[in-house]
Amino acid sequence: MNDLVTIAPFGLAVLLALVVLAVDLAWPGRRGPVLVTTLVGLAVVAAVTVAVGASGERVTAFGGSYVVDPLTTFLDLLFITIVAFTIVFAPDYLEPRGLPLGEFAVVLLFAMTGAMLISASADLLVLFIALELMVLPGYMLAGYHKTDGYSTEGAIKYFLLGSFSSAIFLFGLAFVWGMLGTTRIEDVRDALAGGAPLSAGLVMGLAFLTTGVAFKIAAVPFHYWTPDAYQGSPTPVTGYLSVGPKGGAFALILRLFAEALGPLSADWVQVVIVLAVLTMTLGNLVALTQTNVKRMLAYSSIAHTGYMLVGLAAFAVGRMEGLEGLLYYGAAYSVMNLGAFAVVAAIQRRAGVTSGLATFAGLVRREPWLAALMTLFLLSLTGIPPTAGFFAKYYVILAAVQASQDGHAALGVLAVLVVLNAAAAAFYYLRVVVYMFMREPDAEQPALAHGRLLWGGLAAASVLTVLLGILPGPLLDVVGQAARAIGI
Questions:
Q1: I want to staple 364 with a disulfide (CB 3.0 to 4.6 A). Which of 70, 174, 343, 371 is the partner?
Q2: What is the pLDDT of residue 280?
Q3: Alpha helices, DSSP H only, in 317-367?
Q4: How far, in Å, are 172, 391, 399, 468 from residue 476 at the CA level?
Q5: Torsion angle in degrees (nearest 10) through CA of 350, 351, 356, 359
Q6: What's phi and psi for 352, nearest 5 deg?
Q7: Chain-centre distance for alpha carbon 186
Q8: Under a CB-based contact definition with an 8 Å cutoff, are residues 234 and 155 in contact?
Q9: What is each CA distance from 95 to 274, 325, 345, 430, 483, in whole angstroms?
């Protein structure tokens, strides 16, 4: 019975997906029952997640393969929030194109269950199964617009490269198991902390694991699938893909690298530093050349992955502030990026409207509120105070500076590179603002009517973007508790 209570959030999430499927079968084509069931169900799952993790203690289930601790609770609530926002933003885009909302919600919920299982995994095999449960629905979502050639192309690229990366990741797990004789994360950590030799097999396993994870977070040079998958996917799906699987992949990194392979941090931190430099720099440089806003945000998403890797690097050299900054960054980035993609989806409500820069020209004249909200989200992505994006970058940079003062000079260089990259990113973010406020549209475009659900979601995202910047304290307390669940 205790095991069932411990896995209650995950079990309810799976049950919710099945209930939404049944509701969609009972009322086909009706968005009301699907939306109400999904949002109410997510609220229930969130409440149960908080109740199960309220003690703040580490609790295991099923022989220690499933764990609930403050990190699990924080990540689960983040995944639930991401899915809730995606569901709220989706109907405005899907309905004009005849794309069914019920199937979309079901697939999205199953992806959420995979992410929740990753955050609670205490065994390498469970971790791999959870990863596949998260990414397989992502392939389906990328190709959700079946009659759109770009959507199909992006989904195929995402599937093929994602499958290769999963195989590479599995090879890495096999090497670790073969060298250490266990798949339990705690046992792996103890074996390495006890002086297990860094054999050639273990080095190979570490290399395979790093490569597989780098694909999942779209780190350079393993990012090639990202722009096509993001641009081709339906815009609400693109918003989800930019934050959901990325959050799940970072949860995997924390459970695997920070926890299981923590004693080897001196060996893998150098790779993380190189990946961070390449990822944030190349992501921003290529984003500068883009004239399609969705594709620009795709490369921007790559750059933000690099910023988050800076926090991981600081944590690996012993600064707990690095993990706190990473978790704060993940929460802040999810809200502001989903908001930006929601505005893009709202502008594309009428079928046939592209996401090119020209589409945003003169937006303030026909959709002043959308222009204002898009400006807020772009300023936050840039890192302008007092938005959430500013403090997200601040905490990551602060952790890197503190690590450099401890004698890790490479982290000081990373801090400088984050500042320089943020300055470069301001150009392509603010270019969209210039188009919205200072350019005349090529042709007169009528203002569109948007549903109250979309406006409510945008209002919530904008409020959170501002509040997390003005009052970061409560979230910092939460991420502090989550960070202390893992230590090197």
A1: 371
A2: 93
A3: 320-347, 363-366
A4: 34, 11, 14, 9
A5: -30
A6: 95, -10
A7: 26
A8: no
A9: 43, 38, 12, 31, 41
Residue 250 · residue 258 · CB < 8 Å: no
pLDDT at 487: 55
Whether the model clears a pTM of 0.90, i.e. scores above it, the answer is yes
Model pLDDT, residue 352: 63
Classify 63 as helix, strand or coil. coil
Q: Provide the pLDDT for residue 196.
A: 67
- pLDDT at 60 (0 to 100): 86
- d(CA 322, CA 311) in angstroms, rounded, equals 4
Residue 135 and residue 245 in contact, taking contact as beta carbons nearer than 8 Å? yes
Virtual CA dihedral for 288, 293, 296, 298, nearest 10 degrees? Answer: 170
Q: CA nearest 388: which of 342, 333, 338?
A: 333
Contact 250, 330 (CB under 8 A): yes
CA distance 306 to 300: 10
What pLDDT does 129 receive? 92
Closest of 293, 291, 380, 288 to residue 334, by C-alpha: 380
d(CA 241, CA 243): 6
The burial class, CB within 10 Å (0-12 / 13-18 / 19+), for 446 is exposed
Q: Which residues of the chain have pLDDT under 50?
A: 488
d(CA 461, CA 334): 9
User: Residue-wise over 258-269: b if at least 16 C-beta within 10 A, else e?
Assistant: bbbbbbbbeebb
Any residues with CB less than 8 A from the CB of 306 and at least 6 apart, and which? Answer: 219, 220, 275, 276, 277, 278, 279, 280, 281, 283, 421
Please choose, from the candidates 62, 45, 46, the residue with its C-alpha nearest in 3D space to the C-alpha of residue 2: 62
Q: Which of 190, 333, 329 is nearest to 263 (CA)?
A: 190
What letters, b where the CB count within 10 A reaches 16 and e where it falls short, cover 462-475?
bebbebbbeebeeb
**What per-residue confidence (pLDDT) applies to 374?**
93
DSSP string, 209-268: HHHHHHHHTT-TTS-THHHHHHHHS-HHHHHHHHHHHHHHHHHHHIIIIIIITGGGHHHH
Task: List, in sequence order, every residue forming a beta bridge with 123; answer none if it has no partner.
Answer: 184
Locate the domains of the chain by residue range.
Answer: 2-483
Give the integer Cα–Cα distance in Å for 303 and 287.
9
